């Protein structure tokens, strides 16, 4: 994990928020490579979950909502973790994550057994709306994106003119004042979620839970996270939330242990019923065929963007021993991202930077590809070093413009370039006119 954290910082994937002021615990910034990776992930989720389906529409809700939303959803009363204080070193700790010594909970910071009794600590960030800081102005930064979907269910149902089963999807920020943010971005205080609320008839809920579990597992395969790194954890009924009739956690084998990436939960009609009761507004669905009126049930696949980005990086990280141009063995660090997730799709290299023809041709290729994909032009240093730099960034393809390209070795290969594949390091020569189509096919 240390190697991954250091690579993330060194190459500009992820760094501490507010670092020059000592950072802010549980908050992270994504640099140039990280933001591309994250965007590719969110865009692909949106494509799979919304654009490629007839039965799902999207929305983008506000982060601040009426406080009553959080009262009705149960978050104000119960969205908490058990917290204890260490009387010795004053650390604040999550009671359910403590090591034990002789059957007693122990402080992981100083080793003391002198801890307070657990008490509930609400994870929502409280804030005030408007100029007065009194109780009437209190609300919270949303701790999940889902509630915006539930409270807009009726309006979206009407404008989208959908029939059950149908879903509403959303990607956006969520905030939780975690007691112990840890494991890099895994448990953060500010993070992003990708959530779908899929509304259905009560009798279809259990079947759709299985359907969405399969769909979500296929999604992870399609972004390059192989099934061997994933675990499916069926939550035992006694551990499920009281309103859930079935929940699966999709877990990933991180270097720090197997941990949750996504929850797929059958939440029954709990959320809509709560909001219907509290708001006094009907959230029922009218079935034209059977003339029945009822509150729909919901199946919710809820994934974390930051956790999936971290899983993508962990799954992609690899070290190999390879010979350099002089035959000396060196370690090659490669991020073997699936091409559709890779932040940069193609590196473009003129063999020499002081040859005007090579540089001009390489820059022309940049112009051809740039409207269609993220490319990176690099003319400095030995070609081997330039390949290594892109290997570390996870760039799947490298295009080199050499003397054959510009016709200086005869007409046979004029107008062709070499395309190097990151993982096999094999090179093939192809005409420049075929380059765009070849790369677009591979990164789709
Ligand atoms: N609407 C349901 C819901 O929010 P959750 O299991 O609390 O369920 C869903 O959160 C996903 O959000 C998690 O599987 C995880 O990927 C992500 N997530 C939750 N808390 C997080 C945190 N503190 N830091 C990063 N990601 C988090």
- Main-sheet strand order equals 3-11-12-18-15-14-13
Q: How much of the polypeptide forms β-strand, as a percent range?
A: 25-35%
Say what oligomer this is: single chain
Mean pLDDT: 95
Radius of gyration over all CA atoms, rounded: 26 Å
* Uncertain stretches of 5 or more adjacent residues: none
Which keywords apply here?
single chain; 444 residues; alpha+beta; seven-stranded mixed β-sheet; five-stranded mixed β-sheet; 25 strands; binds glycyl-adenosine-5'-phosphate
Give an overview in words.
It is a single chain. The protein has 444 residues and is α+β, with helices and mostly antiparallel strands. It is built from 12 helices and 25 strands. The strands form 8 sheets. A 7-stranded mixed sheet has the order 3-11-12-18-15-14-13, sandwiched between helices. Strands 22-21-23-24-25 form a 5-stranded mixed sheet, sandwiched between helices. Strand 21, helix 10 (356-369) and strand 22 form a beta-alpha-beta unit. It starts with a helix and ends with a helix. Glycyl-adenosine-5'-phosphate binds at residues 144, 146, 176, 178, 187-188, 191, 193, 195, 260-263, 300, 302-304, 306-307.
Q: What's a quick, concise take on this entry?
A:
The chain has 444 residues and is an alpha+beta fold. It is built from 12 helices and 25 strands. Bound molecules: glycyl-adenosine-5'-phosphate (GAP).
Task: Please render the helix and strand layout as text.
Elements lengths: L1 H9 L3 E3 L11 E3 L1 H20 L4 E3 L8 H6 L2 H4 L1 E6 L6 E3 L5 E2 L2 E2 L13 E4 L3 E3 L9 E3 L5 H6 L1 H8 L5 E10 L14 E11 L4 H18 L7 E5 L11 E9 L2 E12 L1 H10 L5 E2 L6 E2 L2 E8 H12 E7 L5 E7 L10 E5 L5 H14 L5 E3 L5 H11 L3 E5 L14 E6 L5 E5 H12 L1
Parallel strand pairs: 3-11, 21-22, 21-23
Antiparallel strand pairs: 1-2, 4-5, 4-8, 6-7, 9-10, 11-12, 12-18, 13-14, 14-15, 15-18, 16-17, 19-20, 23-24, 24-25
Helix pairs in contact: 2-9
Bound molecules: glycyl-adenosine-5'-phosphate.
């Amino acid at each position: 994990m240390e190697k991954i954290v250091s690579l993330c910082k060194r190459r500009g994937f992820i760094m501490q928020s507010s670092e020059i002021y000592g950072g802010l615990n549980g908050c992270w910034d994504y640099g140039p490579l990280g933001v591309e990776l994250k965007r590719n992930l969110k865009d692909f989720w949106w494509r799979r979950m919304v654009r490629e389906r007839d039965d799902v529409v999207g929305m983008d809700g506000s982060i601040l909502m009426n406080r009553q939303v959080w009262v009705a959803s149960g978050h104000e009363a119960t969205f908490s973790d058990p917290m204890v204080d260490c009387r010795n070193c004053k650390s604040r700790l999550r009671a359910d994550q403590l090591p034990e010594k002789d059957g007693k909970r122990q402080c992981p910071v100083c080793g003391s057994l002198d801890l307070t009794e657990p008490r509930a600590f609400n994870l929502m960030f409280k804030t005030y709306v408007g100029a007065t800081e009194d109780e009437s102005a209190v609300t919270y930064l949303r701790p999940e994106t889902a509630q915006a979907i539930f409270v807009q269910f009726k309006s979206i149902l009407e404008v989208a003119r959908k029939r059950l089963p149908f879903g509403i999807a959303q990607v956006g920020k969520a905030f939780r004042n975690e007691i112990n943010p840890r494991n890099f971005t895994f448990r953060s205080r500010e993070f992003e979620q990708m959530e779908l609320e899929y509304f259905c008839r009560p009798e279809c809920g259990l079947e759709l839970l299985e359907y969405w579990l399969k769909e979500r597992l296929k999604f992870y395969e399609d972004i390059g996270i192989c099934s061997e790194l994933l675990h499916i954890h069926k939550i035992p009924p006694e551990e499920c939330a009281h309103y859930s009739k079935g929940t699966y956690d999709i877990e990933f084998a991180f270097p720090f242990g197997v941990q949750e990436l996504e929850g797929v939960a059958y939440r029954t009609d709990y959320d809509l019923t709560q909001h219907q009761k509290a708001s006094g507004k009907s959230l029922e669905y009218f079935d034209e065929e059977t003339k029945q009126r009822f509150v729909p049930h919901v199946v919710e696949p809820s994934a974390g963007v930051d956790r999936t980005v971290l899983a993508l990086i962990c799954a992609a990280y690899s070290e190999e021993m390879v010979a350099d141009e002089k035959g000396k063995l060196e370690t090659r660090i490669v991020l073997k991202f699936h091409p559709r997730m890779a932040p940069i799709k193609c590196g473009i290299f003129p063999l020499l930077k002081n040859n005007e023809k090579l540089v001009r041709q390489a820059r022309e290729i940049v112009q051809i590809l740039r409207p269609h994909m993220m490319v990176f032009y690099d003319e400095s240093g030995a070609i081997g070093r330039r390949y290594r730099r892109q290997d570390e960034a996870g760039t799947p393809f490298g295009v080199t413009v050499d003397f054959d390209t510009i016709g200086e070795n005869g007409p046979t290969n004029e107008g062709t370039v070499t395309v190097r594949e990151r993982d096999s390091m094999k090179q093939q020569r192809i005409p420049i006119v075929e380059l765009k189509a070849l790369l677009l096919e591979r990164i789709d």
